[in-house]
């Protein structure tokens, strides 16, 4: 299964003909990041009854994303008679003249007059229920094509995201191995640090017990061991690779893994008793932050 980004755009235009009446319709959908699936619709008058079916069709294809779906419908008006509302025009002209006389308002222009609702009237063709149902069925077929285009667009971006995720996961795996084989974790290096710390304390105060200091230092060294964190990082890396290979709607699962990555990186830095390990831990945190940032775009 492929990955999908939550970001995408698609447009679909179609035509439905009923005798001499030709209806043109255009679907548009914009999708951005979202915690769940949120669909907002903008439908023309007379198509509100399609809302339930539209939401159901979207939910079959997508599980996450904030989507704005709009439909525009226009009928071919060639050959139709245009009627003027003479009574309304007379009232508007009288009102315009009065405003011009009393307040110096600019006179009403022809363009402005025709732009007012109700001045021009274009009789609509009578459409039967069967014809209206056929039109709506055609419009819904167009929605199916629109959502297919959106899915393809989101999958295309999802493929690019997958390569980015794989790169980040490999970086985390590499840093984990780097920490595992860091010379500072070697037995001789640990002994040298402990001896130096004990010697420093003994020089500062002869009253301190040398054996107790060695025991305490050894205990602290054990607490500072990061083997468990490294093992857990290995496990999370394997899980991330498996999810990316399987694909599908894995955004939430990868987000959980990113939190686990971050937890281990923080613990590694906190337990570190060597500058080199701390530096690796900080690099891990940066890689995990980049990984998690990209997850916000994934379904």
From TrEMBL:
Which cofactors is this protein said to need?
Answer: a divalent metal cation
Question: Which domain of life does this protein belong to?
Answer: Bacteria
User: What are the Endoribonuclease YicC-like N-terminal domain coordinates in residue numbering?
Assistant: 3-162
- Entries under Pfam families matching the protein: YicC-like_C (PF08340), YicC-like_N (PF03755)
According to the entry, every stretch annotated as the Endoribonuclease YicC-like C-terminal domain falls at: 186-299
Q: Which InterPro entries match?
A: YicC-like_C, YicC-like_N, YicC/YloC-like
> Any idea which UniProt keywords this protein has?
Endonuclease, Hydrolase, Nuclease
Is the keyword Transmembrane helix in the record?
Answer: no
Give the matching NCBIfam families: YicC/YloC family endoribonuclease (TIGR00255)
Family per record: Belongs to the YicC/YloC family.
Q: What protein name applies here?
A: YicC family protein
Organism for this UniProt entry = Paenochrobactrum glaciei
């Amino acid at each position: 299964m492929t990955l999908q980004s939550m970001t995408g755009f698609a447009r679909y235009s179609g035509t439905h003909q009923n005798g001499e009446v030709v209806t043109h319709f255009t679907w548009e959908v914009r999708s951005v990041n979202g915690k769940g699936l949120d669909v907002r619709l903008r439908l023309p008058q007379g198509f509100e009854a399609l809302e339930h079916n539209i939401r159901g069709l979207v939910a079959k294809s997508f599980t996450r994303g904030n989507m704005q779906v709009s439909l525009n419908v226009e009928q071919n008006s060639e050959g139709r008679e245009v009627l003027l509302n003479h009574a309304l025009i007379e009232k508007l002209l009288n009102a315009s003249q009065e405003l011009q006389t009393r307040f110096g308002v600019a006179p009403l222009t022809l363009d402005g007059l025709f732009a007012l609702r109700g001045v021009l009237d274009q009789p609509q063709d009578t459409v039967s229920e069967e014809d209206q149902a056929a039109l709506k069925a055609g419009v819904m077929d167009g929605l199916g094509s629109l959502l297919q285009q959106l899915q393809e667009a989101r999958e295309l971006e999802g493929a690019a995201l997958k390569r980015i995720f794989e790169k980040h996961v490999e970086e985390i795996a590499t840093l984990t191995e780097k920490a595992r084989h860091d010379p500072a974790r070697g037995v001789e290096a640990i002994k040298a640090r402990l001896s130096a710390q004990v010697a420093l304390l003994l020089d500062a105060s002869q009253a301190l017990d040398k054996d107790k200091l060695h025991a305490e230092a050894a205990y602290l060294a054990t607490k500072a061991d990061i083997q468990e964190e490294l093992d857990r990082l290995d496990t999370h890396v394997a899980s991330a690779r498996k999810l990316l290979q399987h694909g599908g709607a894995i955004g939430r699962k990868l987000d959980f893994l990113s939190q686990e990555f971050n937890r281990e990186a923080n613990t590694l830095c906190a337990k570190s008793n060597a500058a080199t390990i701390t530096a690796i831990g900080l690099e891990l945190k940066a890689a995990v932050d980049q990984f998690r940032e990209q997850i916000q775009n994934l379904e």
